[in-house]
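Hello again, I could really use a second opinion on something today. Take your time with it, there's no hurry, and the full record follows here:

___
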Amino acid sequence: MSSLDDLYRRVIMDHYQKPRNKGKLDEAEGLTINLNNPTCGDSISLSLKLENGKVTDAKFLGEGCSISMSSASMMTEVVKGRTAEEALHLVQVFSDMMQGKSVDDSLDLGDIEALSGVAKFPARIKCATLAWKALEQGIKQGEQS
C-alpha cells in the first residue's frame, strides 16, 4: 500500500469515526431529503438550509458503511457557504471522480479527494454518492420552492 493510499484511508476513517455536521436542522430552518441504498442498506437524512441561493448549513444523519458516512461528512463540509450552482457543480465533479474521470486540478476538493480510490470498486460507488444525490435533490427541491 502506498503512503498516499494510507493517508486517504486515515482521512476516510477520521470522518467516519468523528463525522462533521452530524445532526439535523430544525424543520423550520430548512428541508430534509431521505435516501436509501437498497443494495447495501445505507441510509441518509440530509438537512439543508438554503438562503439567497446559498447553502448556509448542511447536516446529516444516517447509517451505513465508512465510505457512505465519511462521504456525507466530507460533503457537508465542502458545500457550506457555496452557492447552489457551485454545489451542483461539485456534485458533477464528484460523480465524474467516482466514474474514474479526470477532474479539474484547480478545484480545492479538500478531504473529498480521499474518496477517489472508490472508483476502483464499482460496488462501493453507490455508497460514496448517496449523500451527493441527496444534496442534488435538496438543492433542486429548494430552488423550486
Q: What stands out?
A: Strands lie at 31-37, 42-51, 54-63. The chain is about 45% helix and 20% strand. The first helix runs from residue 3 to 17.
